[in-house]
Amino acid sequence: MSLSDNKKVQTRIHEINKALSSGTFIEARQMLNSIPPEEIAHLCESQPPATRNLLWQLIDENLQADVLNDLSEDIRSEFMNSLGTEQLIQISDGLETDDLVDILQQLPKTISSRLLNSMDEQDRHRVERVLDYPDDTAGGLMNTDTITVRPDISLDVVLRYLRRLKELPDTTDNLWVVNRNDTFIGVLPLGKLLTSDPTMTVREAMDTEFEPILASSSDTDVANRFERQDLVSAPVCNENGTLLGRITIDDVVDVIREEADHSLLSMAALDEDESTFAPILKTSRKRSVWLGVYLLTAFLASFVIDQFSATLSEIIALAVLMPIVASMGGTAGNQTLAIVIRGLALGQIGKANARHLVSRELRIAAINSLVWASIIGLITELWFRDLRIAYVIASAMAINFLVAGFAGSSLPLLMKRLNIDPALSGSVLLVATTDVVGYFVFLGLASLFFM
Question: What CA–CA distance (Å, rounded) separates 118 from 104?
């Protein structure tokens, strides 16, 4: 969202809040329902729970489905829990398959079953086909609103068929070519259809080199392929090559945004589904779990420090300088960690280049360790006029930089292999490693030099 767009949204929030606070609900309703559903959803997410619930009551029923679809998972679930089954059935009517599946997956099984039974057989079959796949796969991401053609008909027949349709599905840039068994054969771009000789057959005009996306592919792999190939839409097939549906760029944008939110918030051990104005107790409970983990790592670092209490009591300068070693190592490690997690998310790191990556980061750490160990050693000598303290902190700094480089590059790879999310737990383990090693090496060397 651009700066000007954000300013407009904030102005609307202020105007609607002003109408609500003054009790002019009719005016607030008119303003609210005159803007697009995605902006209504943004307004709802920008409000505290009490105001948000009031806004939901003011949204026209014919807009509620689209607004639900644009809300974050946490707030969408909150609104759906306040609706009756009949309201949910009414709201779901007209939603696209992939959007409807997102909603069904958040409902209790009894309600979702009733919602499915209320559909006609064709729509129910489409939804159930998507529900067979996890929501973080291509199958769970796809929509079933495909337009298919046979390879043996002429382009003129295809054009006449399209003219009989009321409208084309959103983001249609290709038609999918299938045989009588619905096996995917190729792609017929709309541009090629409109500019080719109408007497040509689909077989002559279609692109047979286009590789469909497997329904079992992860949503991250799908997003990476859309980015690399600049796709607008892509067909989704099962392992037998049967066409199941299609994925469009708007769904992929959602995946990219969710991945970005996940990476950003997981680095702080937060839940990406949590709304900005989530209830205080709920938020506190979620955050407390990881605060407890951080506390354990802090106690571990404190235990290491306690083993050298005699050294610290003799030389006060060590206590002054000690945090520098740990914090510099943690900062260097987090730089490496961010690069590796990003590379894993983009699919740029695998078994073939993992060893080279670790070696590269160790060389970078070695260069930085020499530079910054020398600088900090020189500053320490000028500050305390003690060459031994300068040697100790410079040596500890160099060692901790190397440890940080190795840990920052290897921990995410190890966690990925163990099917643990590197973004969620990587920073915790890294900080624990650089703190413990930094304190141990610094105070251990000090004990050897001074005691």
Answer: 13
